Amino acid sequence: MNKLWTRDFKIITIGSIISMLGNSVAGFAIGLLVLDYTQSTLLFSLFMVVYNLPKIIAPLFAGPYMDRFSRKKVIYTLDFFSSAVFFLMFLLLRADWFNYPVFLAIVLLIGTIDGVYSVAYESFYPNLVSKGNFSKAYSISSMIYPLAAFMVPVASLIYTSTGSAAPLFAFNAVTFFVAALFETRIGYTEKHMTDNQSEDKGFSMVTYKADFKEGLAYMKAEKGLQVITAYFFISMFAGGGIHILHLPFFKNNPELFANIPINVVTLYTIISSFGVLGRLTGGFIHYKYKYPVDKKFLIALTVYTTISILEAFNLYFPVPLMMLSFFIIGIMGVTSFNIRISATQSYVPDVKRGRFNGTFQMIVSAGNILGQLLAGFLGEIYHERHVIMLFMAVNLLAVIFIMYNKREHVKKIYNRRV
């Protein structure tokens, strides 16, 4: 097997860790900031919807661009720009200034950046992975977020003690700047630009439309990719809905945890950290061991089903069992991620990867936004537990009627040696 830890792979991994450290902190801080200022689950969910809204449009239009121009340059340029945006947020909060519409506009900008960045990163990253190491590489990628998420309890303590998110955004600005510096040092020569003849034909609206249509035609011809995308649209719809309700559940029902001498927000971060620990454990398992090639679809189907059931009921559990449930979901979430992304990214040709990733990101982001918006609305009327059970019932139906019913198409992609 070829060596995984090449110079470029080390650089992209270090850069990802650094930027994710800041991003996990800021993501938690801004959500809590908005919830504290507005005291409204609906306005909180609207804030998250606005952040995710550009992820419907931006990836779709970014895909053809990523298949003709340098993905590496897009990655480090957007990280430099993100650093500047978070520094602006630091200055505003340092002056103790908060305006909901203004911060809504800033978050819309951040969401646009993230939507384009995700397509560039997911299309570029596989090129830095040596042949035969896709599963191992994505297990490392899946461990980056859990490692960074251990900063969330620290962020909670800083926010609680200082009463301001300003220091957290300053930290985020620094991490994005440092990550961008690392990313400029990647030496990989991108071949997709030559393959798509960008240097010979240029890039006009005519070629853009042609590339766009070619990407859609490719998706139409790939039944397995269609099934995977359709399922993850529903999965992200359900997941976006339930995750937006976790923090409001703890803040709105402190009486359920009256016998625990901890602030409910801190308790939530502790419980959710077990999910993070589970993701870290799952990533380590995938790094050390490979699942049987012919069993990967069956393993994925079992994971999708188990997560649906656990997510539906875990907020009814006593705290110790809730922690265990979050831990198991974390392990299974990484398993789902690793099987899906290593299979699809190795299956799609490099010259079409940007367009596939753009389309996929657009569709699943739309599901995520719809789930967040509907859950925020229902969370104002019904108890969070009941809404979560409804969303997970929808997810379980998708497992049965989409993934299981169309399993032969998906097996051709999942059950491959990567």
UniProtKB/TrEMBL annotation:
Segments crossing the lipid bilayer: 12-35, 41-62, 74-92, 98-117, 138-159, 165-182, 228-250, 256-277, 297-317, 323-341, 362-381, 387-404
Membrane topology: Multi-pass membrane protein
Entry-linked Gene3D superfamilies: MFS general substrate transporter like domains
UniProt key word Cell membrane: yes
Localisation: Cell membrane
UniProt keyword annotations, A-Z: Cell membrane, Membrane, Transmembrane, Transmembrane helix, Transport
GO molecular function terms noted in the UniProt entry: transmembrane transporter activity
SUPFAM superfamilies: MFS general substrate transporter
Keyword Cell membrane found: yes
Entry-linked InterPro entries: MFS_dom (IPR020846), MFS_trans_sf (IPR036259), TM_effector (IPR010290)
Origin: domain of life: Bacteria
Gene source species: Proteiniclasticum aestuarii
GO CC entries: plasma membrane
Stretches assigned to the Major facilitator superfamily (MFS) profile domain: 8-410
Main localisation: membrane
Entry protein name: MFS transporter
